[in-house]
Amino acid sequence: xxxxxxxxxxxxxxxxxxxxxxxxxxxxxxxxxxxxxxxxxxxxxxxxxxxxxxxxxxxxxxxxxxxxxxxxxxxxxxxxxxxxxxxxxxxxxxxxxxxxxxxxxxxxxxxxxxxxxxxxxxxxxxxxxxxxxxxxxx
Amino acid sequence: xxxxxxxxxxxxxxxxxxxxxxxxxxxxxxxxxxxxxxxxxxxxxxxxxxxxxxxxxxxxxxxxxxxxxxxxxxxxxxxxxxxxxxxxxxxxxxxx
Lengths: 138, 96
Fold this sequence. Notes:
The structure holds 2 protein chains of 2 kinds.
Chain A: H1 4-19, E1 24-27, H2 32-61, H3 66-84, H4 86-98, H5 123-133
Helix pairs in contact in A: 3-4
Chain B: H1 14-21, H2 24-43, E1 48-54, E2 57-62, H3 66-79, H4 83-95
Antiparallel strand pairs in B: 1-2
């Protein structure tokens, strides 16, 4: 996997080529909304990492920490419900618990029978969806 | 519609970036928005113009390269037969 600096160099090269100019990459100002988004993404990533760690422990070493950890997950889930509301929590819970099937494939999220199914690829994708559906919640 | 477009690249290497930037749909939005933003930057005497957001970054073009970018836009809109935008790019070049 390429490092961020190399990626940025490639990105600038692509823009330079497209626009025949010496373009530059500037870091965005960290607005309040941007910080909120970063915090949300990092929380979901950590939660997912923790769930995967428990699952690995269970499958590789037959150590089941789920019962031990359950109250902590309940605290986090309830905090999410309090903060974002039931509907947003349902989307977050889908992302964390139902998005990846047992065979490792990404399950589609069906919001409405008339709409095409969505495949959530990342916490950022989830965040953008929540912002679109419930802009006042976050 | 937002003034500065955001591009999300699903692969992070040069070929993928170039391929995405050459995609007709992306080009159409990117070039049209850039023309509008260049017009504002030139008229307000700004030292640079924002092209788009990519992740946590903004891609900007400095004032010294406005002419080159406008030539690229002029050629693009001429090829697409969008003559009003082509003329706008040419006229903006004359203001530099």
